[in-house]
C-alpha cells in the first residue's frame, strides 16, 4: 500500500541540537512501522548561510519519499521569503499539485491551500497554543487535523525535535491530488512555516 493511500501518519523529527537540515520519519501510528521519510534539501550554499540568516527567510526544498522503494512521492518548495511565502507542492515529475500561501493575519497560525488551477481548496487553522491545526475545506468541512505528540521532557527542552500526527478524513482518499496536498500541508506546518533557525 502506498503512503498516499493511508489516512493517518505519525511524523517524527530526527533529534539534533545544532541541525542545519531537517529530517523526519513517517510512521504508521498504529504499528509504529516506518513507512516513509522526509528530507530537507536546501542546497549547500543555503545550508551554510543558515549559520548567519534565519532559515525561514531562505529558500528550501523538502522531498517526501516512500520507504518501500525509496520513490519520491512529492516535493515541497519555498522560495526566498520576506513576508507571505508561497510554498509549492509538485509531483516527482515537476507537475504542480498545488500551493500554500501564508495568511496576512492569524493569531493561531495557518495558511491557505490552492490547487494547480489557483482555486482555493482549503484552509489550515491553528489554535492559540500553536500546535493543534485543522485542515478545512472552503465550506468549513473538516478534512483533517495535525496534532502535537509530546516527545518527552528532555527532548522538548534540549532539542527542537517535533513529533506529530497528521490525520486525514477517509472521505478524501479517492481524490489523490487533494490527499497529497493535505499531507503536504501537514508536513509544511513544521518544515516550512513553524521551524526557526536552530
TrEMBL record:
The lineage of its organism: Bacteria, Pseudomonadati, Planctomycetota, Planctomycetia, Planctomycetales. It holds the Pfam family Scramblase. One of its GO terms (cellular component) is plasma membrane. It comes from the Bacteria. One of its GO terms (molecular function) is phospholipid scramblase activity. It comes from Planctopirus limnophila (strain ATCC 43296 / DSM 3776 / IFAM 1008 / Mu 290). This is Scramblase family protein.
Amino acid at each position: 500500500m502506498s503512503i498516499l493511500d493511508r489516512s493517518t501518519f505519525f511524523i517524527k523529527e530526527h533529534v539534533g541540537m545544532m541541525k542545519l537540515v531537517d529530517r523526519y520519519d513517517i510512521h504508521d501510528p498504529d504499528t509504529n512501522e516506518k513507512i516513509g521519510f522526509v528530507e530537507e534539501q536546501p542546497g549547500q550554499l543555503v545550508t551554510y548561510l543558515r549559520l548567519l540568516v534565519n532559515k525561514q527567510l531562505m529558500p528550501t526544498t523538502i522531498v517526501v519519499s516512500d520507504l518501500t522503494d525509496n520513490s519520491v512521492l512529492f516535493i515541497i518548495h519555498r522560495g526566498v521569503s520576506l513576508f507571505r511565502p508561497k510554498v509549492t507542492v509538485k509531483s516527482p515529475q515537476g507537475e504542480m499539485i498545488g500551493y500554500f500561501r501564508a495568511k496576512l493575519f492569524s493569531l493561531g497560525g495557518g495558511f491557505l491551500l490552492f490547487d494547480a488551477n489557483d482555486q482555493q481548496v482549503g484552509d489550515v487553522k491553528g489554535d492559540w497554543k500553536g500546535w493543534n491545526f485543522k485542515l478545512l475545506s472552503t465550506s468549513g468541512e473538516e478534512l483533517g487535523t495535525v496534532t502535537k505528540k509530546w516527545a518527552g521532557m528532555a527532548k522538548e527542552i534540549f532539542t527542537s525535535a517535533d513529533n506529530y500526527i497528521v490525520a486525514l478524513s477517509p472521505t478524501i482518499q479517492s481524490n489523490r491530488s487533494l490527499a497529497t496536498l493535505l499531507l503536504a500541508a501537514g508536513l509544511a506546518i513544521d518544515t516550512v512555516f513553524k521551524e526557526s533557525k536552530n
